[in-house]
Amino acid sequence: xxxxxxxxxxxxxxxxxxxxxxxxxxxxxxxxxxxxxxxxxxxxxxxxxxxxxxxxxxxxxxxxxxxxxxxxxxxxxxxxxxxxxxxxxxxxxxxxxxxxxxxxxxxxxxxxxxxxxxxxxxxxxxxxxxxxxxxxxxxxxxxxxxxxxxxxxxxxxxxxxxxxxxxxxxxxxxxxxxxxxxxxxxxxxxxxxxxxxxxxxxxxxxxxxxxxxxxxxxxxxxxxxxxxxxxxxxxxxxxxxxxxxxxxxxxxxxxxxxxxxxxxxxxxxxxxxxxxxxxxxxxxxxxxxxxxxxxx
Length: 296
Description:
The protein has helices at about 5-35, 40-65, 80-105, 115-140, 145-175, 180-210, 215-225, 260-275, and strands at about 230-240, 245-255, 280-290. It is mostly helical. The protein has two domains: about 5-210, Alpha-lytic protease prodomain-like; about 215-290, Alpha-Beta Plaits. The radius of gyration is 25 Å and the shape is elongated. It starts with a helix and ends in a 6-residue tail after the last strand. The relative contact order is 0.13. The mean pLDDT is about 85.
């Protein structure tokens, strides 16, 4: 997917997801209060956090799309990874809050939830799973860390809703004495969200620390550079990710008899070859060196 098109699609999906989250948060909170379900209330709180998380992702993607300037010569791509890290921290905070409140509710006797809350949860699960799959697919296609983080935000909401459904069903079917099953479900959901938070933050932190991207991307760049006529050898290939884009640093060895002008032309051809196979490479620093044939 072309970078510009990927950014537009990410922003569109994030905005759509944020609107859906607003509606779902209101529905779940209202149904939880009326239907006496703390698991549903906890789910509504998590959806409210999703709205804020979507705004963080939206802002991160918009900032990351800015062109490089004198202040940020390597561009603003890291804003995506920062946004994903913030979303992960928000998920961890929501999970902690849900866990603390769940323990308090477990220790407090209360009535069983109302049966209608199950229907609400089924609708929420279907909507959230659809959003997860749509945003997750786009995150993979565009290589957007922020889009992937937002997708897992949707999946965590689907998980909390599924846990709430199981807990409420148990409390209704098992009868008196099982009212707290709803709260235990919320506690389990909080633990799952915490695991998802770690999963969201890990790749974002890797990107912030300039961890080498997927080996296939590096192999594709290397093949493209070697395919250019006049390139004798390549070495010291380094690729780093910033948002949906990549920056390449590469040493190219060529005929020592080449003039400075011809070596410059060759480096330009190497850059063009790399960008032809990987359009997301926005910058390539090619170090030209004289080729020295092995003596043995």
